[in-house]
From TrEMBL:
Belongs to the 3-oxoacid CoA-transferase subunit A family. The keyword Oxidoreductase does not apply. One of its GO terms (molecular function) is CoA-transferase activity. It comes from Neptunomonas marina. It holds the Pfam family CoA_trans. InterPro entries: 3-oxoacid_CoA-transf_A, CoA_trans_fam_I, CoA_transf_BS, NagB/RpiA_transferase-like. The lineage of its organism: Bacteria, Pseudomonadati, Pseudomonadota, Gammaproteobacteria, Oceanospirillales. NCBIfam families: pcaI_scoA_fam (TIGR02429). Signal peptide: none annotated. This is CoA transferase subunit A. SMART domains: CoA_trans. Keywords: Transferase.
Amino acid sequence: MSGFDKVVGSYEEAMAGLEDGMTVIAGGFGLCGIPENLIAEIKRKGTKELTIVSNNCGVDGFGLGVLLEDRQVKKMISSYVGENALFEKQLLAGELEVELTPQGTLAEKMRAGGAGIPAFYTATGYGTLVGEGKDVREFDGRKYILEESIKGDFAIVKGWKADRFGNVIYRHTAQNFNPMAATAGKITVVEVEEIVEPGELDPTQIHTPGIYVDRLIQGNFEKRIEQRTVRQA
């Protein structure tokens, strides 16, 4: 079984090999389903000049936002960046490159990268700044722009349960970008709340097959709420 066992014993081992200048694809949406401990390990390592591909850049002081504090991020490829004051400050000061990408296009860029598809056509962004300089084709009377897929040196992912072979289940909306991100890394690292023995998970419930996962670690999670709202009594 050891040849198929993906479990590592520490976060240092989980992120071994991450070097300056690499591209990291991160799952999560806002603060939902983010690999918060793997992000913390990147901060601890002090790796710099990183390109981060993620829906957003966390918030001030948590999630991917902590990587901005020591200027570890050179470029963000994101679809939403509105919850982070430090992000805004570095962007306006010219200290951070940002490539804004429509949310569905970003998800498909990850999925296509994992599927070995180098590029695809989408109508999203045609006629806007997003489409400037990109190849345009017409299909069935509608204009489409060519978008290149994304692959990362590392993909960091948050799951709910996994077996030791790396078969992963996500919980509810924490699926968000995690399944796509998991396929698109040369090295995919998954942290989960619970690791079980092979055979304990229903095969029909698996979201990410273990073939995509290189390293697996069990962690403890804070699970912050990004915007707490309650209805009036």
